[in-house]
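[09:14] KT: can someone run the structure on this one? pasting the chain below
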Amino acid sequence: MEPTTNYFVGRVKRDFNGGNTVVGGILTSTARQLDDSLASSYLRSHAEAGGVDLLHMWSDQTYSLRAQFAMSDVGGSPQAISRTMQSSAHYFQRPDRGSVRDGLFTTRLDSTATSLQGYGFYTRVAKENGNWLWEAAQNVRSPGFEVNDLSYLARADYWWMNGNVGRQWTEPTSWYRNLVVLAGGQQQFDFEGDRTDLQQQAYFGMQLPNYWNWRSFAIHHPAVLDPGALRGGPIVQRPGYNDYSVGLTGDNRQAVVWGMSTEWATGVGAVNQSVSLMPSVTFKFGQNANVDFTPMYSKGKGPQYVMEVLDPTAVAFSGARYVMSDLDQTSLSLDTRLNMTFTPNVTLELYAQPYFVSGRYGSFGEYAAPRALQRLVYGRDMGGISATTDASGHVTAYTVDPDGSGPAQAFTIANPDFSYVSLRGNAVLRWEYRPGSTIFLVWQQQRTGTTPDGSFDLARGRADLFRERPVNVFQLKVNYWVGR
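[09:31] RB: done, structure tokens below
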């Protein structure tokens, strides 16, 4: 159960210059009443964040400038703040964490700290209209930036920047109605100066004379350093890959609108490949209802973290072995949406997504060294590995001797193969009972289940799905527009 908690969000925004300049600010606060040691060791007692933002457009809104800046402060017991510093958003415990460029706030693990501060900012300048388009942007999160109490932050500690340029043709010709070509690149560094992302991309899209829409892109990702690959261990390299996509959609004015897209990736210097297919169809019933079906099938193989094993003989990795694997994964989903408008003031939205995924792990091993790309496979490049099976022949565990006749102790890996099923559904009834004032009645249902079998079996997955007990959530939200 969540302890007594107060959440506050305040937002103010003001337009100037005929709407071409917008200035805003935001303040958020989370305050928890933590009356026992268990809650205080896991949860932060308070969290605040504040920020300002600016949007400015000029030359008839041809050019724009966006800027945002925010600061965060969280506090709590030493145990709670230490957990925050070691979470996947920060990984302050990395043994090779060196000097960083953030001289304002804490950037190293401190088990006695009772607070953590950080900052972030975003800027973008762009040409938004005309035949030629361009943009340049940067996005920064300091190592200690933390807003997960009232928002969502997957990762801090980065300085990201990008640039794109494009050309569009909007006057119809005999072979297109409009056409756009874009090209650009991006890169990212952490606050230690390591490059953690790099890519070059190109996009081509056009609308044909019959109103079909074609879109395609190509992205090149070379190998880069990844500070989170070992989940708090030393930094290593992430394999590179090339990513491609092609899609075609039918005339959106018709009663039935179809689409098909595919995306595939091939590894650069490592096992890293995937392919996905996503057909779609939308049925329109007059002006007030439509149904959309979007299935997606994907299959891929790539590196995956498995576990950490303490071993004083693993000197290069500061007394630990970080076990990696190749994960062969298959998934299938079906997004279904129904939108109905009974009157201009009453609408109904339904959404359901059955999802099936399975994964098989193989080629267990570890990185050859910190900051390296090469992985050594147990039983091939180093040590040995053997499987333990049950009476039915199913593998339940693997025993690894990482250095053969050397001093390292053997360890066991529980078979991580899995199959996962889920069903998510939402129903939202909306009633605007007076201008600007609305009531939302929401019903959410979710079913999830897992089995330790990595084979993809759709029939078994369907049966497992409806054997799971559903979780139902009902919500009522009321908005009232003051001043009408």
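[09:33] KT: thanks! The first strand starts at residue 5 and ends at 16.
[09:34] RB: yep, looked fine to me
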